[in-house]
Amino acid sequence: MKAEVAHFTTEQMVDMVGLLSPCMDDYLYVCDFKEDYYQISPNAVKRFCLPADHFHNVVEMHRQVVYPDDLDLLLVELELLSTGRKVFHNLHYRWMGKNHETIWINCRGRVLSDPEDGSPRYLVGCINEIGAKQKADNVSGLLGEYSLKIFYESRSPKLPQGFLLRIGIDDFKNINESHGNEYGDYILRRTAQCIEENIGPEQSLFHIVADEFAVVDFSGGSVQQAEDLFHEIKKSIYAFIEQNQYKAVYTVSGGIVKNGDVDNSFENAMKLSEFALSEAKERGKNSCYVFEEEEYEDYLKSRTLLRQLHHAVNNGFEGFEAYFQPLVNAANGELTGAETLLRFHSPEGGMVSPGEFIPILEESGLIIPVGRWVLRQALDACREWQKILPEFKVNVNLSYVQVLKSRVLTDVRRIVDEFGVKPSSVCIELTESGYLEENERFDKVWNGLKEYGVLLALDDFGTGYSNLRCLSDLKPAYIKIDRSFTLKALNREYEYRLLNHIVEMSHSLGLHVCVEGIETEGELIKAKQTEPDYIQGFLFGKPCSRAEFTQKFFTKQAR
């Protein structure tokens, strides 16, 4: 869903905050992404550890009020909102009170876009204290989250054996949007009834957040019993949908947390169950997920890594390094270029696998500034190496996120001009998986790069997405045969014949072919028999730093 267009100026929005604030107990706010400015209801300053009711430098000022353990959670959310990856904000986390006490809040908001360029401009919303919510919910007819908190605290510090089953309606906003909020309330009530008719007398049901419910078992219930309960609830919901003549067809997801022997606090139960429910939804919805400590640790590790990546980007790309792997002419083995590869050194754990940090860069949008940095590193190296080898070329990988979320065509042209190299000295690589569906913006970028003179390569060819439409529509300068397919081709006759046909077909279309992943002389001999144009692999050199690449491939030539 797209963000709404802002029809008010920052001053008008600030005036509305001041006008409406005395009429409510909650806290209205406006965050201006462009001006890095924040305004909140004046009464919030009396309650929270805020420097003032308005300030610039939003992230730094929030460090004073956000509970330290929750800061990364907020930073990730702000990144998604300010880059347009999310248009609705709904986050539960903690702020610090005036006396430095911890206060749980629910912060909601909506992104309004700039009418001039459509970019995210404002986040407008409301903050309310979760602990200040009423004890019961009149919509579902159930006790609410505050009552659940009291329920937990009355049994601390050591909870009885049992489980917490957190249930959420999948895509509930679609019901509200299609049928209205009143009908949405009806669905909440009927869903609550479906849950309630399946729980035992020793179990308790609460309506916690919006479209989410919690079933608490303190009677020794097992994880298997929780899973069985979830499936019985699903059956009841299916029956209701059928009886309702399919007016609203929906599913539910569930997250199960077993009562542990440590940290039985309400806050921890909410945190772990929210993670479990989110996992269930991310894995396809309409299912339940049982909390696993190891997977939760991986999740926390990824959040830590995201924080480190944010720090690196904001501090001159500290920890990032460009590595280079040689590309050679298949006919004579001479060096023709290098592929530029991104590496990241964590300040805590050393070298991080690209398979770990690159997806996080893409999910957070940080791949956009990092991608520009990588291109600059590649062209700076290319300019140096062309003094010795004038026709030397550098390949740079391009993420589909850069294509869809940034002005990548402008960026590439500006940076190439900045370093004074010929556009044909640069080859942009894009994986086939980044081009699964036709996209007008993608076509514009791809064609614009070709018109500018930059070479284009289709990477990872043969990994499962290969199709003639890619070759027909994109018309790249060359394709790169992925290492996984190369291995099959060098060891199995069928794939080897297929590789021969791919090379023949590519040459008939005027395309060059690069075979990746060659590691031994035997592999090289067999690969060359298919007559590719280029070879890449550990046999000629592993990815290495710029200094090492220069020492290995250019020092002797320079002499």
Can you give a write-up of this model?
It is built from 21 helices and 24 strands. Strand 2 and strand 3 (37-40) form a beta hairpin. Helix 4 packs across helix 10 (293-314). The protein is globular.
Radius of gyration: 28 Å
Proportion of residues in extended strands: 15-25%
What is the average per-residue confidence, as pLDDT, rounded to a whole number?
88
Helical content stands at 40-55%
**Largest sheet composition:** 8 strands, mixed, barrel
| Biggest β-sheet: strands ordered side by side in the sheet | 15-16-18-19-20-21-22-23
Number of strands: 24
Q: Please report the distance between the alpha carbons of the first and last residues.
A: 60 Å
What best-fitting shape do the alpha-carbon axes yield? globular
> Which structural class is indicated by helix and strand composition?
alpha/beta
Ranges where pLDDT stays below 50 over 5 or more residues in a row are: none
Total count of helical runs of at least 4 residues: 21
